[in-house]
Every structure is written in C-alpha cells, then in structure tokens.
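A quick aside before the break. I want you to see a complete sequence-to-structure record at least once, exactly as it would be stored in a machine-readable document. Don't worry about memorizing anything.
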Amino acid sequence: MRAAVVAEVKTWKGTRFGHRQRVKNGEVDCAGLLAEVYERCEILPHIELPEYPKDWCHHATREIYKEMIEAVARESNQSLPGNMATFSFGAVEVAHVGIVIEWPIIIAAWPLSRKVVELDCDHTPAFIDRFYKFYDPFPRQLKLSG
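That is the input. The structure line, written in tokens, reads:
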C-alpha cells in the first residue's frame, strides 16, 4: 500500500498549483493532492475539502488542515513512505502538508513553485525548522498471536 501511494504521488509531479483544486495534470493544492492520492490508492474514501481562503493560515483562528488530517489519520512518530508530513506556517500548527517519499524527501503541491514538486525538507529554506508532525493514514495492521 505504501509503495502504491509513493508511485501515485510521483505521477502528480508537475501538476500546476491551484487553490482548492484536485485535478491531476490540471491544478491541485496540498490538501487536494493528499485527498486524491489516498483515494486513488484506496487508503481513504472521498474527502470533501472544506472552504478556506488562499491566505487562511496567516490569520486563521481554526486549524482547518489539522482538523481535516486528524479526521482521517493518526499521529505518528515515524517518517514512513506514504505518511503525511505536516508543517507550520503563519498562525496555525498545520499550514502545509506533503507525502513522504523517503524522509526528508516529500512530494507536495508547493505554491512557491506553482506546481507539485519533490522537496528535500532539510535543504529547502522554507521548510527548515517548520516540521510539525507525521500522520499515518494507513489501516492499522492487526498482530495475530499464535
């Protein structure tokens, strides 16, 4: 399942950035990218994105992305491929999110690049010291005793 997510998100590279969009080879933002990739890989059901203005994270009083992510994924201390990596910008704890390829490499719809790109979080100035948490959207594996 993790390999399928990584393979799918890689096919989105180059898709233009578009606020509240989720169309492969059209336009997508960071929330739309996650929603579409996990849905296409049958990890999560269809998620309706909430309404939010383009600059919401700079004056928000509500954790829009964090609420959306915590509704479908659990916090994790592991940087496993396919997990979500979240970042703090502006006035909120979670203002940006990408999919881990192999930490610190993520793929995200990045507005400064105006497209979906692969980013090295240790060497991309905007991401240094901005990491918040990892989230795991994958179903928990049952451990059978025997």
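Two observations worth writing down. The domain at 2-136 is CATH 3.90.1720.10 (endopeptidase fold (from Nostoc punctiforme)). Residues 30-40 form the longest helix (11 residues). We'll return to this after the break.
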